[in-house]
Design a protein that fits this description.
The complex is a heterodimer of chains A (490) and B (77). By secondary structure, chain A is an alpha/beta fold. Helices cover 36% and strands 13% of the residues of chain A. Chain A has one domain: Amidase signature (AS) domain (Amidase signature (AS) enzymes, Alpha-Beta Complex), CATH 3.90.1300.10. In chain A, helix 8 links the parallel strand 7 and strand 8. In chain A, helix 2 packs antiparallel against helix 3. By secondary structure, chain B is mostly helical. In chain B, strand 1 and strand 2 form a beta hairpin. Chain B is flat and about 55 Å long. The chains are: A alpha/beta (490), B mainly alpha (77). Chains A and B meet through helix 9, helix 10, helix 11 and helix 12 of A and helix 1 of B.
């Protein structure tokens, strides 16, 4: 039943409902595909029994009244989401063996909608990375390869396992989280769709915290419609998250429309930066044409503080991370280094052994920018610049309805090719501003570059306007006709 | 961190700190630092106990739990 794994979530849902195939058949096809793709290192844990149990439950209720929206659909869950009784490590040695006694709100919502869990998806350690190379489980290998080459490429990060799994058809959809591009950049690298909603749409409860004012869960799938279906099931008010938005979840799937008549698409001039490959700027221009074809009018806009978004992010995110990660002390969960005499030594030894290099780097930066003598110069300054970045978008959305940019400044790069941390950070240059402003944003595949690798287009919407983002992405999807799939080598 | 780790980290941290210092160019006079990315009122809830009675679940993942407590190296001489 390999053809089942090439179907979209909408197709699987409809085929299951009409009785074309059972949930058990879908589950079987996916469990088999997952087990046959271990070379990709996309899953950290496989849970075939979980998928079978959810499938059996779905098969039992089919034909008896209303089915929940994801009945019969198996999904991959990023290892950042706490899953009851299933290892949850955030890609870190310091959480080795941690089996939560509770379920994150987002994954609980997906389960309540009938979804089964295929397993946990590999990721950069604590979501800190843009290539999946910082994972304690080793890097995910992208299913994509450059034309005529067998060099292993990264799937991007931090949701790299999610992106690789969806692209390789070993999950029809997956959860991701996005702090500064961690859904959108890997989606672009892997030739799939990924949306980060407005900050607060999805509950952060039960998601391992990285930078709490930026972290937001979202969906990754092969089509815009599938992203809408998943996001609708994931989102919703949760009293357990103090920043959760107390608003009804819109019917995003039913609202999909690629007719953009009367819509204005903002093209920010500051996103034309040096050093971006020609293929990417060409695709951006093509994207503008596609949106014009759908009825929209392009307008030039200015986001003057764009240049300062990345340095702002690399103060705020590490600052919040250094505070959030203080909880890993070897006392309550995860790793403990034994063989030291005092409590302080135990904390130090546990952290030295449990955290990887990138995490230590960010804890050090975060601690420094929050330290008494430097707090105003770095952290307060960054929060002021963040307010200006937010203001840039507020003014821009008086002139336009949605913003179009490239998703990332390059296609996927090789594993081990980028060793300088600063060069790695630049991957998120187009993604980070929307994160700092808490805005919904999405990557949709636009085409392939000269080496045969996928490139993404990036849509940024105004607060709470996921529908506008999804609709513009749908217009691009329909016109790009992106059907390329990685050739199976694994 | 080991001396080797520190030796490697020092130039990296200096480069990152040097790079973020470009924010000094931005005029932020009179700008209020951002505190909430999406403006909303903090909710109040009824002052009632809504949680608890889950000691065993809390301790379930402890590397060392004894007699219903987390166990750590001795801290009082």
């Amino acid at each position: 039943m390999t053809e089942l794994t090439s179907k979209t979530i909408a197709e699987l849902r409809d085929g299951f409902r009409s009785g074309e195939y059972s949930a058990r058949e879908i589950a079987g096809a996916y469990n088999e595909a997952v087990a046959a793709a271990r070379l990709l290192n996309a899953y950290t844990v496989e849970t075939p029994e979980d998928v079978i149990a959810a499938a059996d439950a779905a098969d039992k209720v089919r034909g008896h009244g209303d089915l929940p929206s994801l009945a019969g659909i198996p999904l991959g869950i990023k290892d950042l989401f706490a899953t009851q009784g299933i290892d949850t490590t955030a890609g870190s040695n310091i959480l080795k063996g941690f089996k939560p006694t509770y379920e994150s709100t987002v994954s609980a919502n997906l389960r309540a909608a009938g979804a089964g869990v295929l397993g946990k998806l590999n990721m950069d350690e604590f979501a800190m990375g843009s290539s999946n190379e910082t994972s304690a489980y080793g890097p995910v290998i992208s299913p994509w390869r450059r034309k005529g080459s067998n060099v292993g490429l990264t799937p991007g990060g931090s949701s790299g396992g999610s992106a690789a799994a969806v692209a390789a058809q070993i999950a029809p959809g997956a959860t991701g989280t996005d702090t500064g591009g961690s859904i959108r950049q890997p989606a672009a690298f892997a030739g799939i769709c990924g949306i980060k909603p407005t900050y607060g749409r999805c509950s952060r409860w039960g998601i391992v915290a990285f930078a709490s004012s930026l972290d937001q869960a979202g969906s990754m799938a092969r089509t815009v419609r599938d992203c809408a279906i998943l996001l609708e099931a994931m989102a919703g008010f949760d009293p357990k998250d103090s920043t959760s938005l107390d608003l009804p979840v819109p019917k995003w799937e039913a609202g999909l429309s690629s007719d953009l008549k009367g819509k204005r698409v903002g093209i920010p001039k500051e996103y034309r930066i040096d050093g971006v490959p020609e293929d990417i700027n060409t695709l951006w221009d093509q994207g503008i044409e596609w949106l014009k074809d759908a009825g929209a009018t392009p307008v030039e806009i200015s986001l003057p503080h764009t240049k300062y978004a990345l340095p702002t992010y690399y103060i705020i995110a590490p600052a919040e991370a250094s505070s959030n990660l203080a909880r890993y002390d070897g006392v309550r969960y995860g790793l403990r280094e034994e063989g030291v005499k005092t409590l302080d030594d135990m904390y130090a030894a546990t952290r030295a052994a449990g955290f990887g290099a990138e995490v230590k780097r960010r804890i050090m930066i975060g601690t420094y920018v929050l330290s008494a003598g430097f707090y105003d110069a770095y952290f307060t300054k960054a929060q002021k610049v963040r307010a200006l970045i937010k203001q840039d978008f507020r003014l821009a959305f008086q002139k336009c309805d949605v913003i179009l940019t490239p998703t990332a400044p390059s296609a996927a790069f090789g594993i081990g090719e980028t060793t300088d941390p600063l060069a790695m950070y630049l991957n998120d240059v187009f993604a980070v501003p929307a994160s700092l402003a808490g805005l919904p944003a999405m990557s949709v595949p636009g085409g392939l570059d000269g080496q045969g690798l996928p490139l993404g287009l990036h849509l940024i919407g105004n607060e709470l306007d996921e529908q506008g983002v999804l609709n513009a992405a749908l217009a691009i999807e329909e016109r790009a006709g992106f059907t390329a799939r990685p050739e199976k080598w694994w | 961190m080991s001396d080797e780790e520190l030796a490697r980290l020092e130039p990296e941290l200096n480069a990152i700190i040097g790079w973020v210092e470009q924010l000094g160019e931005v005029n932020t006079d009179g700008v209020e630092p951002l505190t909430a990315v999406i403006e909303q009122k903090l909710r109040l809830r009824e002052d009632a106990v809504t949680d608890g009675e889950c000691r065993d679940a809390v301790l379930a993942n402890a590397p060392n739990a004894q007699h219903g407590f987390f166990a750590v190296p001795k801290v009082i001489e």
